[in-house]
Amino acid sequence: MGRQPSAKPTSFDIAYLAGVSQPTVSRALRGSKSVSAATRANIERIARELNYTVDKNASSLRSQRTHTLALLFFEDPTPDQSMINPFFLSMLGSITRQCALRGYDLLISFQQMHNDWHVAYQDSHRSDGIILLGYGDYQLYRSKLEHLVEMDTKFVRWGSVSDDSIGLTVGSDNVGAGMQAGRHLIEIGRRTIAFLGDASDHAPEFQDRYAGLCRAMEGAGLSPDPALQRDAISSEESGHAAARALLASGRPFDAIFAASDLIAIGAMRALTEAGLRLPQDVAVIGFDDIPAANLTSPTLTTVMQDMKSAGELLVDALLRRLDNLPVERSVLPTRLIKRQSTAV
Amino acid sequence: MGRQPSAKPTSFDIAYLAGVSQPTVSRALRGSKSVSAATRANIERIARELNYTVDKNASSLRSQRTHTLALLFFEDPTPDQSMINPFFLSMLGSITRQCALRGYDLLISFQQMHNDWHVAYQDSHRSDGIILLGYGDYQLYRSKLEHLVEMDTKFVRWGSVSDDSIGLTVGSDNVGAGMQAGRHLIEIGRRTIAFLGDASDHAPEFQDRYAGLCRAMEGAGLSPDPALQRDAISSEESGHAAARALLASGRPFDAIFAASDLIAIGAMRALTEAGLRLPQDVAVIGFDDIPAANLTSPTLTTVMQDMKSAGELLVDALLRRLDNLPVERSVLPTRLIKRQSTAV
DNA sequence: ATATTATGCGTATACGTATACCCTATGGTC
DNA sequence: GACCATAGGGTATACGTATACGCATAATAT
Q1: B86 and A55 in contact by Cβ < 8 A?
Q2: Fewest C-beta atoms under 10 Å: which of A31, A278, A336, B322?
Q3: Residue B7's closest chain A neighbor by CA?
Q4: How many Cβ atoms from other residues are within 10 Å of residue A163's Cβ?
Q5: Is B147 within 8 Å of chain A by CB?
Q6: CB of B48 within 8 A of CB of B25?
Q7: Segment A97-110, tens digit of pLDDT
Q8: What is the DSSP letter of B112?
Q9: Where does A79-173 have alpha helices with state H?
Q10: Domain locations in chain B?
Q11: Would you identify the CATH topology of the domain A11-54?
């Protein structure tokens, strides 16, 4: 529209045109009720005509609120590689959308985890709070989290929601998800179910999924065989190696529950290479429902996490934390997506 | 380390402790050479001890430079879906890394394209410049770009680097890539090569890839058959539909060059469903080298774009533009990744 | 020895907004 | 008719940093 090619208008310009003072402009545009309706309407009209925008820096400096959140990925195995776990990417979409809805900007960083996050983002007033995402070495992670808590950094994280978790956490019901997967495999007649994924306390989410599987099996009168659990981190290679090791052990099994789709995909490759038929010989279930899960052959049955709610809850929890409102951990239900890899 | 639990230190605090004035602190920390080495060292030491960080808002307000870039995705087909083209995600990784290296923060948004970007990011001093990414309706896109140019918004975009392109552009050598793909198919003995992808000027990148294919064929004495080109947007469904239509036409072909991996994957599914053997009956080449390309069966031969350089060049070009340095469009070479879908 | 320039730093102020505080005119209360 | 509350908006100032300018002192030139 009719826009001045001149310098950017300030609240003083508007004030002058409206015949009021600058603070009145500020009040009017921020919705203060101590401005008459007529004055406000006039100011808003002029602001629109001039294409006025509040200067973010000045506003943040004065109010000490940036209306910006920082999203940080924590993932240690691939410092240089641009390969990001596809699961987190769909989370990213969800979070950006929610930030936009709530009127917040989103700053993102894939940098390696270091101790200076509070400095880099909060102390320098780049963002009001931090969202943490990522798998990785949980022990290392944990010490960093403790540091953040100590520094009184405002943050929320995605992860395993257990009692001892540090800071404010939002996550899926991993135990429940494990049960879903286990029950489904049992329903289709499988009795000896292997689990691929780190079950130590280095990876609480995987641990929970395994616990859920075990509970489902016990509920059906089956006893989980610890020898059928193999460690794996969330990568295709790791899944491939774990499945090969399992096969090499000679221990029979008729199903695999993998702690992530990447693991499952690697495992399926190993099984196929070993001449096994899927799902007749071995049924496979993954976790995350990444896009590739629908492309494998057979297509992969998996547990889908509620990404849409995840982003909403993460952002909402963090904003409540910033406002010092009461806020509790959230646990999200999951959904089983049945595909060919368990279709008998 | 020994950190005051009190309010955040300012440059005045440092100045007081160092026995100098606040501006000297600012100069010292910003590397001005009109500060003696001794004074600077002392100031830096105190700043470190106090865990001092420059306040981003105050700094940006005063200097009128935010040291922040905004990354905007433009993709119209899926306004609500969180499904993002995997290709752009690897670009995202590359860009974030480069921003970090250059000392810039990255603001990201997946919002729908609208006319107010300059307002939302540049005019409000949220960022110094904008990076545009995305496929989509090019005609619509084009009008928006013209608007940005008119508003003197500082931006750079990823796309087809042709003479009439608007604004500063960085992109792959799509014509050259098409030639690479075509030559490879010809080398393995294919003569009737189909192309799946929009070849109209709605999608200049796809158009260029098709042009490269045609040039390769003509160079080998073959004449491209226009009937073997079928429109498709970058999605699996679209690729599936296009391939089915091609099969239904009854026109024989022994190879497909798809304008993107997603299209190729959809096409492979259609071919398999039709009982054709890959690559014996039909060889397939995709584009982008998304992670899933290595998971299909057969694994997909594809053209890889140089993501690492892409991020570097985009960021570098934009920063040069911000500094009013001379900057030109860049064209990046591509690399053919041979996999099973063309292994005869 | 005087003029000249560079070095190192302090003084003053601008960046644009938000908010605490104060003031003026109403209107209603007894 | 003196009294107080309220609406509506002005005045002053703070947020923390960066930069134009000026002014010494010291270094160099002539």
Answers
A1: no
A2: A31
A3: A123
A4: 5
A5: no
A6: no
A7: 899 889 999 998 87
A8: P
A9: 86-101, 117, 138-150
A10: 11-54, 68-171+307-331, 174-305+336-342
A11: 434 Repressor (Amino-terminal Domain) (1.10.260)
